[in-house]
Amino acid sequence: MDKTMTGDLLAFIRRCPSSFHVVRTLTEELSGYETLSEGEAWQLRPGGRYLVTRGGSSLLAFRVPAGEWQGFLLAAGHSDSPTFQIKTGGELQGPENYVRVNTERYGGMLYDSWLDRPLSAAGRLLIRTPRGLESRLVDVGRDLLLIPRLAIHMNRKANDGYAYDPRQDLLPLLGLAGGPSLSAIAAQAAGVREEDVVSSELSLYLREPGTVWGAGEEFVSAPRLDDLQCVYAALRGFLAAEEGRGLPVLCVFDSEEVGSATRQGADGTLLRDVLGRICAALDRELPVEIHHSFLVSADNAHAVHPNHPELADSQSRPRLNGGVVIKHSASRRYTTDAVSEAVFARLCERSGVPVQHFANRSDMAGGSTLGNIANSHVSLNTVDVGLAQLAMHSACETAGAEDTAYLARALQTFYASGLTAHGDGEITIYFP
């Protein structure tokens, strides 16, 4: 196990309590990359390093090769995770002298994993300024809220598959009447006056730090492994890669957990806008470059469950620490086809990275991810991959401690490579 990388992964997740903090953390890690504004003309130069953000929660970073290049080499993950978003107006007074927070579910979540655990709030505030408005990130950064469950004496069916009512069972307790308000706490944490806060976008997060555990320290558990484990691995591969024969792009989109249909999501125009502007600035034709491009859509996959192995497909059985998982779906909810599978498998082989495969059991519906959504706007060869994990969409998820390094190594090789598509199904790979 690469203990340094695993420790860095957990530190990265700790710095990212919201999708807005993910983008800030990535920007800090991409020190030396010039931030481009979508509202200004772009002047790009060979050897230049650039990043673009949208909505404060999505980011694309890219490098223009100093030498000849053809096509884009893209890896994509997402910045968001299932959580509870705090509604405008926030606080609920009562019953008795309790003060609760009014929340709404964001994404598909395992409700009971959030109960009786210390929670905090993070996101962004919009602040009034003399010129208009300014966005300010905020992380309360302390144990602030908790969603208490009913005692077994008051809910004898708690262990029999209890159906939670989000408007009654899942509202977090903030404090007692007379205490500081949530808006005041958030303003203080952001270092601004409460009266200057015009609006807010806050969500809850689990305060417990991630940990490495197991008889041989083979497992890692943390909040938001889906999909920050892939985002972190893609970042490491992107930064470590030497110049290849393609233009490398790191893509991190928001809103994946709610369908991606936002201006900062993969179902928006961000990817096509950025690739189009790169081509325009460098006097390239977008359709030609897209033809020679490749996208690795990286979002975690389901491992075989130790207590329910029967729920996995009889042949597609990813295991923790078994390497990168290539995901398949006949309905194309995952975009992997024979061509993209073969290309990525060759890259992993070149990297010395083991490969596993995932497909849903034939009588069970599965989810979808970024690949097919992005392809509806920019059609290119795409493979859907991930790292095997347990308890996906729990407040605390579990994965293999070795697998982060596998994906980082595969993507380092990918970003340092290049592709030429001669026709449908015939591709030359320029390995580093």
Order of helices and strands: HHEEEEEEEEEHEEEHEHHEEEHEHEEHEE
Q: Total number of β-strand segments?
A: 21
* Class by alpha and beta content: alpha/beta
Q: Give the N-to-C terminal Cα separation.
A: 25 Å
Kindly state the percentage of residues in helix.
Answer: 10-25%
* Rg of Cα set: 22 Å
**Strand fraction band?**
25-35%
Total of helices: 9
Mean pLDDT: 95
Largest sheet: 13 strands, mixed
Description:
By secondary structure, the protein is α/β, with parallel strands linked by helices. The protein contains nine helices and 21 strands. A hairpin with a 4-residue loop joins strand 5 and strand 6. Helix 4 packs across helix 9. The longest helix has 16 residues. The radius of gyration is 22 Å and the shape is globular. The mean pLDDT is 95.
A few lines on this structure:
The protein has about 425 residues and is an alpha/beta fold. The chain has helices at about 5-15, 20-30, 180-190, 225-240, 270-280, 285-290, 340-350, 370-375, 405-415; strands at about 35, 50-55, 60-65, 70-80, 85-95, 100-105, 120-130, 130-140, 175, 195-205, 210-215, 220, 245-255, 295-300, 300, 325, 355-360, 380-390, 395-400, 420-425, 425-430.
